[in-house]
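so my prof wants the structure for this chain in the tokens format not the other one, which i didnt know existed until like an hour ago. anyway here's the sequence
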Amino acid sequence: MIAHGSYDECLAIRVPNKEDPSKVDFNAQYCTLGLHIERQPTVRRNLEGFVQADKYLKHYLTNITWVLNLVDRIPLIRRMALCLPSTCSPDIVPHFIEKLLGKYGVSSSILGCRNVLDEKPYPTGTYAAITVTCVLVAIVFAATLVDYLVPLQNKVSAEAVNLVRCFSARAATRRLTTVDREAEHSHLDSIHGIRVLSALWILLSHTYATDPGNLDRPYHLFALLQDPRFTVVTQGIYSVDTFYTLTGILFYRNMTIERKRFQNISVIPFSIVVVFRRAIRLLTPTLGALCLLYLLPAFVTGPSMDYMYNYFTNNCAERWWYIPLFISNLQTLDEACILHSWYMAADLQMICILTLPVLALIAWPRKGIWLIGAIAVTSIIYAGSMLIIYETTPTILFTPLTLSNAILFSIYQHVSSLAHLSTMCIGVLGAYLIEHHRDIKARRSLFVLGWIFCIIITSTIVFFPFKWHFNGNYGFGEGLAYVTLSRPVWAACIVWVLYACAAGYGEPVRTLFNRPNVVILSRLSFCFYLVSSTLVLVKMFAARTATAFTHFQEMRDFCADMVYGYIVGYVLFLLFEGPTYALDKWIVNLCSRKRSVEQNGRSIPICDYNERTKSCKGEVSRTVENSILSYVKSRL
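here's what i got, hopefully its the right format
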């Protein structure tokens, strides 16, 4: 599908001037030619024999008439590399091909070119991203110096210095690496392991998602469809539902705590503040991912970079406002600026829907349970109706006969907040169950049975689509049952794992999931998720040769992307997510009178207030305590 040629060797060619060899008369430019073949009789004659020669193609392309009609409707495209003198216009090549082969249905177009001695200027967004990154690096560096060099007792204004510490890399790293096992919500610490596994599952699925042209014999995908291991890759979409379930659990817990602290604020203003805080927490790291996308021209070169990159930047220039308005999931994936921005949009939309019902659950539990349950049922009905109305697939299926339906699935199911709403509702109800009924006494055998059922159900959800991949299609009844029940049942299994661990009947799992190193990776999971799709683009843009489409090769790429993902995710955390989180806490501390102590008539905020012990903890509180003791001793 792609003949890359020799990219770097072509760009390195220089032709010196005959009279003055120190000067260059011209150099080489690398261009990519898109070759289109429409209604080619030779293709029609040989296609059936080609399909019959391969057992996998023969298995999946049983209807040769359907294949021929597809070839007639969709022109075959082959990309070829051209190494031309820089003095030649590349537009002359499509002209010659049209003259020579046009009557046979062959046409062509120049997709992109690169001339290293006549480089195109970076997009405006790249210069803006460089400026923003440099400013943030300078702020973080200065704040870190202040955090290191200025002792707290010499600070003129504790609130101002706490504000500076919000941007400190030292303080952010301490927040990232500090693990408090005595915290009030320690019974939910198994969330960290689930979050890390889900983030890695997403990366694994994204690793396999690349430009088919960069693969050696990409039709070997049909062989992978008959491998059960590949089903684990395709069903990585359930890691998204896992994240939404965890969001529902944490949303209920945080709403309960914040509502107790701000009881005097009426419901509507409180809800607006909750949604606004969530929007800022989601938006700032997303803008960091946007900066990372615009920084790619400064670091990445490759054949696909020359013509594919502008496709994404053009989408950003036309529809950048989709991101701050959180409506990115209302556009198709080919219109997206950042491919995974739909996740943040769907997240905030569900938070907007569930804020008032969660407050009702806190105030009137019985009514709240019925209300949230009704919302979950509505979401389930929506998922089933989309399969009936638009004939979407029940999940991601890559078989030829279901490919167009799988695209509809991604539009109406995968990126839709209404389709995922049931998982967040299950998470909220599960959080209520964990918080109020985790101390219930039950036989250990019941929990053992629960673990067995949980493993069986989750394995069924993941591996049942293998049947459809193997057969090449799905039945309507089983597809409808799967699309309506798989998400809420999956969310219920996630809740069960957390409930069993919180109740003390999952200690081996809890010990594995709450390890300090797992907690650190868990706190980086959002930035890691934002970075993962960009890493896939980098691999696609920089490809010089075709690679084998095998599990071994993809796992190598997965391990490399995992390392790079956490490194770049940590940088994104220091510059974007960490300061946003700290600023949010700093503002809340100023608004909450519970988080202060009185000293010489001044109110000094304490960073880590524990609701359970009604006391402060952490480095800042200890420093303030020492300052108070020093002041008392000096007076005595």
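also thought this was worth mentioning. The CA atoms of residues 78 and 465 lie 32 Å apart.
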